[in-house]
Automatic annotation (TrEMBL), chain A:
It comes from Flavobacterium anhuiense. Keywords: Cell membrane, Membrane, Protein transport, Transmembrane, Transmembrane helix, Transport. Belongs to the ExbD/TolR family. This is Biopolymer transport protein ExbD. Its main location: membrane. The chain crosses the membrane at residues 26-44. InterPro entries: ExbD (IPR003400). It is a single-pass membrane protein; Single-pass type II membrane protein. It comes from the Bacteria. Residues 1-20 are annotated as: Disordered. It is found in: Cell membrane. The keyword Glycoprotein does not apply. The lineage of its organism: Bacteria, Pseudomonadati, Bacteroidota, Flavobacteriia, Flavobacteriales.
Automatic annotation (TrEMBL), chain B:
The lineage of its organism: Bacteria, Pseudomonadati, Bacteroidota, Flavobacteriia, Flavobacteriales. This is Biopolymer transport protein ExbD/TolR. The keyword Transferase does not apply. It is a single-pass membrane protein; Single-pass type II membrane protein. Keywords: Cell membrane, Membrane, Protein transport, Transmembrane, Transmembrane helix, Transport.
């Protein structure tokens, strides 16, 4: 009968033909899924593409050597780490002429230098009995060491929480010997 | 008895509002995202566990790799001002168009005399141009000049100290990096950043 009659729900009586209500809603689920996927993508790429960095502060450079004041530090608190060619790493505690430990070759990473650093850090605090007087690490990158070696060691400092460290560039002849020795 | 008809609850929720929000956010992220341009000097930065983000503005990046040194300043106005300063210092006249182009450029590694040529190139050609790097020997230390002038420009424009970051290749020899550090320290910049990649926490 009145087939074309739409929208007008219960119109006339007798032989009701209900036109089906068309659902005006569109299923948005897929669209929302897609939108969120893209959001996640853009969010992550914008924040992750920013380069990471590492802060590095160096002491004031003094061009006038006469002004150089020798800072007196307890040599039992110092640990010297030297980097050489082909990822060679040498460390010793105290003075080289009368070392407390080492000089010894050691590997980079978790099982090598980090273990040593953590142990030494603890023992130095025990020795001084003062939390503020911790270990002092002297980093000596050799002329043949790579930039990666330096960053690795600085990273170890950050991991082990050693706050006092310095990058020193001059080598004693004996240290050089140690570093070049295979 | 009257039948109690349970109303069928519709399982589909209204997604319109959610869709609106989602697309609004999407538009925002798309517009804020910046397209990555290939670097003139690609370097493989060493990894570290330290994760401090670099600032977006008032930053100069010194890229060191393959024995070459490239320089990049973030911030268009600072770039313009720096180019003006460099032009004045070396007696090269840069036109307004050059400055605008330079402001939109990325890192470069040419002596000042070759700068105009690089500016005139298309972005795609710059990466292929095989730039020789900025000279930094004691006779002709142009990196020093770039640093000085860009720092001055940052202070003039933003009243802030320019942040310096060194982006070195992992395989670069230490003396080269040391040389850059020395140049920085000669200018009393004792604190700077080293750009590194990310490494897992359990390293």
């Amino acid at each position: 009968m009145a087939e074309l009659n739409t929208g007008d729900g219960g119109g006339g009586k007798g032989g009701k033909v209900r036109s089906k209500k068309q659902n005006s809603k569109v299923d948005l689920t897929a669209m929302v899924d897609l939108a969120f996927l893209l959001i996640t993508f853009f969010m992550l790429t914008t924040s992750l593409s920013k380069p990471q960095s590492m802060d590095l502060s160096l002491p004031d450079k003094n061009d006038d050597p006469t002004k150089d004041k020798d800072l007196k530090v307890d040599e039992k608190r110092t640990m010297t780490i030297m980097m050489g060619e082909d990822n060679k790493l040498v460390y010793y505690m105290g003075l080289l002429d009368a070392p407390i430990a080492g000089p010894k070759d050691i590997a980079y990473g978790k099982e090598g230098i980090r273990k040593e650093l953590l142990a030494r850090k603890k023992s130095v605090i025990e020795y001084t009995g003062n939390k503020d007087k911790g270990i002092i690490v002297i980093i000596k990158p050799g002329t043949k060491s790579k930039y990666k070696n330096l960053v690795d060691i600085l990273d170890e400092m950050a991991i082990t929480g050693v706050g006092t460290y310095a990058i020193v560039n001059d080598f004693q002849p004996k240290e050089k010997e140690l570093l070049e020795k295979k | 008895m009257a039948k109690i008809k349970m109303k069928k609850k519709s399982t589909s929720t209204d997604m319109t509002a959610m869709c609106d929000v989602a697309f609004l956010l999407l538009t925002f992220f798309i517009l804020t995202a910046t397209a990555k341009v290939p670097e003139a000097l690609p370097v493989d930065t060493p990894a570290s566990t330290v994760q401090t983000k670099l600032p977006d503005t008032d930053l100069a990046i010194i890229t060191v790799g393959k024995g070459k040194v490239f320089f990049d300043i973030k911030g268009r106005e600072i770039r313009k001002r720096t180019l003006e300063g460099i032009g004045a210092k070396y007696g090269i006249n840069f036109s307004e168009e050059d400055k605008t182009k330079f402001a939109l450029m990325d890192d470069f590694g040419v002596p000042v005399t070759g700068l105009k040529q690089i500016i005139d190139m298309k972005a795609a050609d710059r990466t292929k141009a095989n730039q020789p790097g900025i000279p930094l020997d004691s006779l002709d230390n142009q990196l020093k000049e770039w640093l000085l002038i860009s720092r001055r420009a940052t202070i003039d424009l933003d009243d802030k100290e320019l942040q310096i970051a060194i982006k070195g290749d992992a395989k670069e020899e230490y003396p080269k990096i040391k040389k850059i550090m020395d140049i920085l320290q000669d200018q009393k910049i004792n604190s700077f950043n080293l750009v590194t990649g990310t490494r897992g926490k359990d390293f």
